[in-house]
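explain this:

___
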Amino acid sequence: MRRIQVVATGGTIASRSGAEGRRATVLAKELVASVGPLPEGATVGARDVVTRGSYAFGTADLLALAREVRAALRDGADAVVMTHGTDTMEETAFLLDLLFDDPRPIVLTGAQRPFDDRAADGPANLGDALAVAGDDAARGLGTLLVFDGFAFAARGVRKSDTMSARAFSAPGRGPVLRVADGHVVPLARPVPGPRVPVDLDLPRLPRVDVVPVYPGADGLFVRASLEAGAAGVVV
């Protein structure tokens, strides 16, 4: 029996409409229940970490999410699925891919439309993510992002459409897996990238600024970043 741990973090997939607008109020167990039949031979646990939009996440939140993944893997989970807002899903996926050198699948998914929308895409995306997490084809591929029937490697994926259900793409690379009627079809195998050792128990990640340069640029922006407290600058 394969054990998959779902870690819920809010986002549109967990949002309902109310008097104050759309808010992430749907909890992990309800998200899992919305999927319908679970992958054969799998048990699925559900845990809530935060319930808010990913646009509000800071580095302390990202470290907390990474610690949740670490805890699930240490506890013996065969795979981890994280539901997440689409605004910063690619950044979280990339960070997790940098941090974890483990063959067990770590899969992120979300939704373009809220949970109570008549055409909600969250249940199908979560179902596909669970199918990927429970399939041997996903082992050793690093962190994956599953959306609209396709799984993308964390390195190279980006949100490319803010309206369509097919919100993510990987220009020049394409998806690595496809999900069709609950079956996972391998398409490509990504080249593993280097991992970065990071102390997950830090209160927050050091600030590193990205500074653009152009012909004739001086050091103003670099100096401003350092004076503002950046631990380093990428030019």
The first helix runs from residue 28 to 34. Helices lie at 28-34, 59-74, 89-99, 122-133, 220-227. The mean pLDDT is 95. The chain has two domains: 2-186, 206-235.
